[in-house]
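User: I'm putting together notes for a lab meeting next week and I want to include a structural view of one of the chains we've been expressing. I don't have a solved structure, so I'd like a prediction I can at least talk through. The sequence is below, exactly as it appears in our construct file.
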Amino acid sequence: MKTDIKPLLSLVNMPSADHALLLEKILSSCVSGYQNVTIAIVRQPVIEPDVAAEWPWLENKVKAFERKSMQQIAHMQQQMQNIQQVFDELKSQLTADASVIDYMRREMDWSDFVSKMELNHNDIINTTENFRQFWKSREKKAVIEEWKLSRSGDEWAVSESKRTGYALASLSVQIPEKITGAVVAVYLFSYPMPRMGHRFTLFYKKGEKGGVEKKRTKK
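Assistant: Thanks for the context. Below is the predicted structure for the 219-residue chain, given as structure tokens.
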């Protein structure tokens, strides 16, 4: 049975309409089955100057990665065409023949292909290093505002306890203070039962008409 989240939403004063809509979408899909819910607005760490300075070059980095990847794809496609050509040429050969077998062995030799494939793979790895500086270790996200709520039956109320007890199923939702970017990262900590915790990051991509597209990655 789906949980009615309207009473819960009425207890939380989000900083903007966009935050409120995002929270509603999150809780509509996540809150069922939980007795404790913690909702927080967090301040994300400031991007380091050297990282920010590299961002204008992002398009060039992506193009380099695409170029190397396409080289690898073209190399594999060429090998497939070479093998297919051998098969096509042997369609009329109904019985084994020493010359034919020697021809197949030489034309289908994979040593050069594998060597070139490894070189292309190393080139792709090198281009991915261009992105590594973007995800340097970050300081812990600071909580700006927080609401701890508990449910009894169908009724939600502000929790009297300063700490959420994980003896009952609990969910923590952290929404960034600023959600002006093209993608919003929402951090979830799920405790469906004692000593069983899961941490997720939900990425919401803003749509042209205000909608969001969600993709979950487990961390």
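A couple of points you could mention at the meeting. Strands lie at 36-43, 142-152, 155-158, 170-176, 183-193, 196-206, 212-218. The first helix runs from residue 6 to 9.

User: Perfect, that's what I needed.
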